[in-house]
Amino acid sequence: MTKTLKSIAPVQLGKMFAALYGVMSLLIAPVFLMIALFGGLAAKEGAAPGILLAVVIGIAMAVGMIIFYTAAGFVIGAMGALIYNLLAKFLGGIQVEVE
Q1: Under a CB-based contact definition with an 8 Å cutoff, are residues 43 and 54 in contact?
Q2: Residue 82's domain spans which residues?
Q3: Band (45; pLDDT cuts 50, 70, 90)
């Protein structure tokens, strides 16, 4: 049986993309923290403020990345759904076969 996907709820797709991007950023954030830690450890001996600054900046970047990725996921998902709905009116949507 073939069915046609004619429209997607923008807010729902936005929420799904926000969740997906948020989870992906949680997986990537530790990389930022490791880079910050190693960058701080690579500072010259006796440069304790450099180590602390690198770690603080790394934590701030990781937290900011999680927030930014989640928000961007929502916006991208909602915009994608709106564009799909507009194009589906003219092109007929995606046909899928279900059983």
Answers
A1: yes
A2: 2-97
A3: low
